[in-house]
Amino acid sequence: MTPFHRSEVRVIYGETDAMGIVYYANYLRWFEIGRTELMRSLGIAYKDLEAQGLRLPVSEVFCKYHQSARYDDVLVIETRVGFLKRASIQFAYRIFRKDDGAELVTGTTLHAFVNPQGKILPVPDFLKNRMCRQD
Question: Which of 17, 23, 35, 91 is 20 to 30 Å from 3 at the Cα level?
Fold first, then answer.
């Protein structure tokens, strides 16, 4: 079983259009919240990875919109590790409205492991151990 995490956010007015519907790009920001909080829950902070010379740039994103979120909705971001390969990791997301459980968005992001100069690196063992733990 791969690690799994839930985060909550409330839609603020500035994240919506004139009709009170969330602007589509905000879901990508919420994906980022989901993955950073998943990693934090595993004891891995992005700033610590950077201090060790490791970067995780996004190389691919997929987002399927099912329903719209609206101003003041409380959203739940479910994040898990989709897969971990030699030099990449995929995170999978599901965002739903807390009040009624309506699924709003599903998606994935793919990240390469690189050094500060952009050279591909293998996944460090300590990350493999934490991200592919058996519960």
Answer: 23
> What is the C-alpha separation between 80 and 132, in angstroms, rounded?
10
Full-prediction pTM beyond 0.85?
Answer: yes
8 Å CB contact between 15 and 26: yes
Q: Which CATH superfamily is domain 4-131 in?
A: Hotdog Thioesterase (3.10.129.10)
Question: Burial level of 32, CB count in 10 A (0-12/13-18/19+)?
Answer: middle
Q: How far apart are CA 44 and CA 80, in angstroms?
A: 14
Cα–Cα distance between 65 and 35 in angstroms, integer?
19
pLDDT, one tens digit per residue, over 102-111 is: 999 999 999 9
Instruction: Specify the length of the chain in residues.
Output: 135
Sheet holding 88-97, edge to edge: 4-10, 74-84, 88-97, 103-112, 58-65
Catalytic (active site) residue 17: yes
